[in-house]
Amino acid sequence: xxxxxxxxxxxxxxxxxxxVILLNACKRKDxxxxxxxxxxxxxxxxxxxxxxxxxxxxxxxISDQAISYGxxxxxxxxxxxxxxxxMRNGGTSTITxxxxxxxxxxxxxxxxxxxxxxxxxxxTGFSGQSxxxxxxxxxxxxxxxxxxxxxxxNVQQGSNNVTPSLSFGAVTDFLTIQANTDLxxxxxxxxxxxxxxxxxxxxxxxxxxxxxxSTTSFDYHxxxxx
Length: 226
Prior knowledge:
This protein is mainly beta. It contains one helix and 18 strands. The protein is globular and about 50 Å long.
């Protein structure tokens, strides 16, 4: 089980989550320090080949329709504080992941359903909030969920190296790029594909996640702002 929590620098998801869980176990924090109220969460099904997923908080069904691979749900309003977030195969009682979550009041979260190197399903979330950029800029966060991929993904915009080489589990902070300008993607230093600049409008904030189709090929997916 994994906790949903807030902010990242470029580092691996699994390592950071493990550290957070260990710290929480050592400190034995009072569970009532998380104020109960409302939070919002968007769920992305990033597990290629998975069945569409229903989303629950504790035993309450939250999603009104199952979330298929590659889809991002709308933002759901859920309870903040401590709870369990659960994914089930759509229309069934089969639980695919149950994740302990500590959600802060009045924050918006973006959570990804994916699998790790051992083939175990994961649900990992981040605060989805960032200040809007200038009208000629966009902000983008990049997440590498391509477990099969051999080699790191680089993102460039012209001569600007937007990201370092991203390996599986890496996530960036929100990075500022030029709006309406193409992004070039490379794999292990070899040019691979381009994301059209029309995908990134001025003054908007986006998340781009990658997954693998093989050890030498990957797809990109854009979570648009709302």
